Amino acid sequence: MEGWRKEVGLVAGGVALGVTLCLAAKGVARLVKKPAKVKVTYFKMAGRAGPARAALKIANVDYENEFIDRESMQKIKPKLPFGQVPVFEVKGEVVSQSNAFLRYIGKFSGLYPDDPFLALKVDELVDGVGDAMLLLKPSLLEKNHDKKMRMRKELVAKDGSLRRFLENVEKIVAANQVKTNQGKFATGSRLSIADITLFTLMKMIHDGFFDGIPTSLLDDFPLLKGIHDVLSDMDVWGL
């Protein structure tokens, strides 16, 4: 019996310690200072750097765009952490992985929730947009114009994979807004990096970046179009 009490005491103590550490971590997160300046190295397009640029602008962080082309990319590739761009120079270090950097910006700017479940809902959409970009990648790499147009047409057809993705995201956003009883943003009432990531994809579609995908496609998804319109009015496009 005494051993059982000791085990329960250890478990309870561990839970209490875990809660204390979580609370302490939240306090530390709020004390994180934003960087004085950031350099973003990427091509002169939105792509995977678009959300980071927009988040930096919303967070009022001074940043510099270092635009590269295919030739200069080959020269710097061996020096990059994962051999790819974008990369971000922050606090004297070069870091990679755009979503990791986006969460970093979100944590000190209020664009990423402290609550683990709300953070999960944000991450669901951020990572989902990454999946959408993978759907688009084959057509981006295709050099034959006619074939590229056929691929794009298939993506947005009635049963096309990109259209299905947008339909699913529209449903997720609708459910999130109903659960919070308010809000015009992706996870409810607060702007987050989920909205910024969705906005980047929506703007690329709206502005005709993807030849062959109708710029009017967003009209079929009013909630996503609403997010696009709100952030467009905020003038956060970093190009």
Descriptive report:
Pfam families: GST_C_3 (PF14497), GST_N (PF02798). InterPro entries: Glutathione-S-Trfase_C-like, Glutathione-S-Trfase_C_sf, Glutathione_S-Trfase, Glutathione_S-Trfase_N, GST_C, GST_superfamily, Thioredoxin-like_sf. Residues 115-239 form the GST C-terminal domain. There is one protein chain. The protein is an alpha+beta fold. It has two domains: 37-109, Glutaredoxin; 116-234, Glutathione S-transferase Yfyf (Class Pi), Chain A, domain 2 (Up-down Bundle), CATH 1.20.1050.10. The protein has nine helices and four strands, in the order αβαβαββαααααα. α5 packs antiparallel against α7 (161-180).
Tally of strands: 4
Helix content: 55-70%
Known CATH architecture of the largest domain: Up-down Bundle
Low-confidence stretches: 1-29
Give the number of helices. 9
CATH topology of the largest domain: Glutathione S-transferase Yfyf (Class Pi), Chain A, domain 2
- Helix vs. strand class: alpha+beta
* Amount of beta strand: 5-15%
How large is the radius of gyration? Answer: 21 Å
Classified by CATH, the class of the largest domain is Mainly Alpha
When the domains are counted, the total is 2
* Separation of the first and last Cα atoms: 68 Å
**Order of secondary-structure elements:** HEHEHEEHHHHHH
**Strand arrangement across the biggest beta sheet:** 2-1-3-4
Shape: globular
How confident overall, as mean pLDDT?
87
Profile the largest sheet: 4 strands, mixed
InterPro entries: Glutathione-S-Trfase_C-like (IPR010987), Glutathione-S-Trfase_C_sf (IPR036282), Glutathione_S-Trfase (IPR040079), Glutathione_S-Trfase_N (IPR004045), GST_C (IPR004046), GST_superfamily (IPR050213), Thioredoxin-like_sf (IPR036249)
Organism: Chloropicon primus
Protein name: Glutathione-S-transferase
Keywords: Transferase
